[in-house]
Design brief:
The chain is of the alpha/beta class and 429 residues long. It has 16 helices and 15 strands. α2 runs antiparallel to α15, α4 crosses α5 and α15 packs antiparallel against α16.
C-alpha cells in the first residue's frame, strides 16, 4: 500500500471570524487580522517538506468563496454583489460564514477506507456532512464535487455522498486506522462523542460512524466504535485528532483522549496484538497544553525506509514541557524515530494543525494512475501554486474587510487563477 496525503490549499478568504464554537484557537483569535497569503505559503512549504522526506502529496483546491449560492438559499436576491451587500447589512455573521476558508481542513472532507478493508476491494470514501457548524455544513457539495473528480475511476474508488445531516459526521478527523506490522487488512476505528462534556458540542455521532462503516462494507470484527472523552471535548478537543493519531501499528494519544481507554486498548490488542500504544500521561502534558500546542494534531507518517516520523507544529517545540517529553520519546528507541517541525502558525490560529490540513488516502501502487493527476503534487505544481498565491492572495484581512466588494471580487479572481494554473476549468470545482 502507498499513502497519499491530500492537503487543502488555504483559500484567499482565510479570516478570523471565530465561527467554530468549541474550537479554542478559532474563538481566541476571533477578530484578529489574518494573513491569507502567508497561511497558504506555509501550507505549501509543509507539503514541500513532506515530499522531500519521500512522501506522496496531493491537494484539494479552495472552495468558491464568497458562497453566494448559500446566501441565496437564505432568501437574499439580486446579482452576486447585491446578495452580498444585502446580507452584510442584514447579518454580518452570515457573510462571515459565506466567506469561510475552513475547507482547507481536508481531514474533515470525508472518511476513507482502503480496498484491503472493504468487502468489494474498492477504496470507499464518504463525504462528511459537517452538520454541526453552518460554515462547515456548506462545504459538503463542493467537497463531493472534488472527491468525485479526483477519484472518478469506478474500478478503484467508490465515493459516497454525505450521511443525512441530523447524524453529525466530521470525516477522518474522528477516524483512525491501525495495521499489523506485516500489513494487510486494517482495523478501522471510529471515534464519536456524546454530550460534549456539557460545555461544547460533540461533533461526531455514533450513528453516522456506523452508517459509514456499513456503506464501506467493513468487517465488523475489525471495526471499533470508541467514545471520545467528555473531558477532552470540554477542554477544546472538538475532534479526536486533537488528542490522538494513529499510523501503521502505532496509536499516539493523550491519557484522557477516550472515555474508556483500557477497554479500547484491550479490544484493539485482541485484533492486532502487535499494536504499540504510546500514551502521553496527563501529569507530563495536561489536556490544555496538548490542545494549545496541537501536539496530537501532528502527522504521524511512515518514511520510505520504514521508520516513523512525527510532523509537528512549531508550537510543540516552543513548549518546554511538550518538547522535553517528545525528546524522551525519541531517545527511548520506540517506533517513532524522528521529529519534524513545520510552521503552519497562520492557519493553526484558526483551529487546526498539520494533521487537520490533510486527508489520507491509501491505495495499491498500481491504482495511482486511477487518480486525476491534477490533484497530485510535484515541485512544478508547488511553484505554480506559490506564484498564484504570491500574486493574487490578500496579504491581510480584518473582520470589517469581509463586507468590502473589492475583497469579494479579488478572492473570486484568485481562486479562478489557481484553478487555471493547475489545469482545471472553473465549472469543474
Amino acid at each position: 500500500m502507498i499513502e497519499i496525503n491530500f492537503d487543502g490549499i488555504v483559500g484567499p478568504t482565510h479570516n478570523y471570524a471565530g465561527l467554530s464554537f468549541g474550537n479554542l484557537a478559532s474563538s481566541n483569535n476571533a477578530g484578529a487580522v489574518s494573513a491569507p497569503r502567508l497561511a497558504a505559503l506555509q501550507g505549501v512549504a509543509k507539503m514541500r517538506r513532506l515530499m522531500a522526506l519521500g512522501l506522496r502529496q496531493g491537494i484539494f483546491l479552495p472552495h468558491v468563496r464568497p458562497n453566494v449560492s448559500w446566501l441565496r438559499t437564505l432568501g437574499f436576491g439580486g446579482d452576486d454583489a447585491e446578495v452580498l451587500a444585502t446580507a452584510w447589512s442584514t447579518d454580518r455573521a452570515l457573510v462571515a460564514n459565506a466567506l469561510s476558508a475552513s475547507a482547507m481542513w481536508t481531514a474533515n472532507a470525508g472518511t476513507v477506507s482502503p480496498g484491503t478493508d472493504t468487502v468489494d476491494g474498492l477504496c470507499h470514501i464518504s463525504v462528511a456532512n459537517l452538520s454541526t457548524m453552518p460554515h462547515r455544513a456548506a462545504e459538503a457539495e463542493q467537497t463531493e464535487r472534488q472527491l468525485r473528480l479526483a477519484f472518478a475511476d469506478p474500478r478503484v474508488f467508490h465515493v459516497h455522498g454525505p450521511v443525512p445531516a441530523p447524524f453529525g459526521d466530521e470525516g477522518a478527523a474522528n477516524f483512525m486506522r491501525v495495521v499489523p506490522p506485516s500489513g494487510g487488512r486494517g482495523v478501522e476505528i471510529f471515534v464519536y462523542g456524546e454530550t460534549g462534556g456539557g460545555v461544547f458540542p460533540s461533533r461526531q455521532r455514533r450513528t453516522a460512524s456506523e452508517a459509514v462503516a456499513r456503506r464501506h462494507g467493513l468487517n465488523p470484527d475489525r471495526t471499533l466504535f470508541v467514545q471520545q472523552s467528555e473531558a477532552a471535548i470540554a477542554a477544546g478537543a472538538f475532534h479526536n485528532d486533537v488528542v490522538a493519531v494513529a499510523n501503521g501499528h502505532v496509536v499516539f494519544a493523550h491519557e484522557h483522549a477516550f472515555a474508556d481507554p483500557a477497554a479500547f486498548h484491550a479490544a484493539l490488542r485482541r485484533i492486532v496484538p502487535e499494536v504499540a500504544i504510546i500514551e502521553v500521561p496527563a501529569d507530563r502534558v495536561d489536556l490544555d497544553t496538548a490542545i494549545r500546542t496541537y501536539l496530537f494534531n501532528s502527522q504521524l507518517v511512515t518514511l520510505p525506509d520504514g521508520s516513523m516520523t512525527l510532523v509537528l507544529p512549531a508550537e510543540a517545540r516552543e513548549n518546554a514541557g511538550v518538547w522535553t517529553w517528545l525528546t524522551e520519546l525519541i531517545e527511548s528507541g520506540g517506533p517513532i524515530r524522528r521529529l519534524e517541525v513545520v510552521d503552519v502558525r497562520e492557519s493553526m490560529r484558526n483551529g487546526g494543525g498539520p494533521a487537520c490540513l490533510r486527508l489520507r488516502v491509501q491505495i495499491e501502487p498500481d491504482a495511482l494512475a486511477a487518480i486525476d493527476p491534477r490533484f497530485l503534487l510535484d515541485d512544478a505544481a508547488c511553484t505554480r501554486i506559490e506564484a498564484v498565491v504570491a500574486r493574487e492572495w490578500p496579504e491581510a484581512i480584518a473582520f470589517d474587510d469581509l463586507g468590502d466588494p473589492r475583497l469579494w471580487a479579488r478572492c473570486h479572481r484568485a481562486c479562478t487563477a489557481l484553478t487555471q494554473a493547475l489545469g482545471f476549468q472553473p465549472d469543474e470545482i
